[in-house]
Amino acid sequence: MTFLAVLVAAQAAALFPAIDCAAVPGWTQQGEARTYDPETLFDYMNGNSEGYIAYGFTMMKGITCVNAAGDQLVIDVSEMGDPERAWGFFVTNRDQRSPVERIGSAGQVLPRRATFAKGRHYLEIAASPDKDHREALRAFVTALEPRVPGPAAAPEAVAWFPADGLQADSVRLVPESVLGLRILKSGFMGQYAVGRAFVVPEPTAAAAADTMEKLRTRFSGAAPVAGLGDGAFAAQDQYLGRLLVFRKGARVAGVVNVAADGDATPLAKALAAKLPQ
Questions:
Q1: Which backbone phi and psi does 15 adopt, to 5 degrees?
Q2: What's the pLDDT score for residue 2?
Q3: Phi then psi dihedrals of residue 48, to 5 deg
Q4: Are strands 172-174 and 113-118 parallel, antiparallel or unpaired?
Q5: How far is Cα 78 from Cα 83, in angstroms, rounded to an integer?
Q6: CATH 3.40.1000.20 domain residues, the chain
Q7: Whether the Cβ atoms of residue 49 and residue 42 lie closer than 8 Å to each other
Q8: From CA 233, how far away is CA 247, in angstroms rounded?
Q9: What does the alpha-carbon distance between residue 63 and residue 32 come to, in Å, rounded to a whole number?
Q10: CA dist 172 → 13, 42, 60, 92 (Å)
């Protein structure tokens, strides 16, 4: 390994959150610490590593903690591609039936599981045996959250979705193939009564314009729509139903699966007004 590679590895290790069982009194480490990368995560996750990889996973470090009562906490911290993907991974894996808390950029403490995202990291704690471990889980979350570097805020894109009619906690990051279309590489989606709204950021306005042209070609019968962003069009699709798509600057956005009795234009205009130039 070259000196530069060693230096980069050392810097990466220094930025990784320091987790230890002694963060909460009464707990000690059981066994050795764990480290996994994209090549070895598959074995630890019993073949269920694809979701982590899709969100830019680079490394996981973990420990197991036990107390005198025989309780066990398995703590794992994963570094994802960026803060947006760490938040997005939490949102995808959260318990849909339980509320989201402001722990880091978002988190949950449940009877046997605690998770949160902060910066580029996603922390998860699994508790056993089968009983209510919320007191211990919250103690560890409270102790470890300050050790995780990076912003404790949801992505800026969450605020782009108009609040009126937005289904609670429905905004999420789709890491690849938004709407099932490879043309739309990565973006955000939110659920409304009238349909699903989406925003796909592109590197530049020119790249967004190119994506719009590919979408227009993809949907046969696309009809221009005036007064809504750049190159706006409406179309009908077998899987996405009625849709309305537009561009604003470097972002491609719109509404799909429009309800049979719905009008997507007001939502699309409100979404366009929220998007940065």
A1: -85, -10
A2: 53
A3: -105, 40
A4: unpaired
A5: 12
A6: 156-274
A7: yes
A8: 10
A9: 7
A10: 29, 25, 23, 7
Q: How far is the CA of 74 from the CAs of 2, 17, 130, 170, 277, in angstroms?
A: 34, 16, 14, 29, 45
Tokens, residue 146:
């300050």
Average pLDDT, the chain: 93
Please name which of 151, 208, 155, 158 lies closest in space to residue 185, comparing C-alpha atoms: 208
Q: Is the pTM of this model over 0.70?
A: yes
Token digits of residue 136: 């211990």
What CATH number is given for 156-274 in this structure? 3.40.1000.20
Q: Tell me the residue type at 173.
A: L
H runs (alpha helix) in 197-253: 205-218
Rounded Cα gap, residues 161 and 1, in angstroms: 47
Q: pLDDT, tens digit, for every residue of 78-119?
A: 999 999 999 999 999 999 999 999 999 999 999 999 999 999
- Tell me what percent of the residues of the chain surpass a pLDDT of 90: 88
pLDDT digits (tens, 9 = 90+) for 45-77: 877 899 999 999 999 999 999 999 999 999 999
* Residue 220: Cβ within 10 Å count: 9
Q: Tokens for 107?
A: 């988190």
Q: What angle do CA 55, 44, 146 make, to 5 degrees?
A: 60
Can you name the CATH fold of 3-147? Answer: Protein Transport Mog1p; Chain A (3.40.1000)
Is the CB of residue 94 less than 8 Å from the CB of residue 108?
A: yes
Exposure on the CB side of residue 275, measured as CA atoms within 13 A: 26
Peptide bond into 129 cis (omega under 30): yes
3-17, 173-187, 246-260: which has the minimum mean pLDDT?
Answer: 3-17
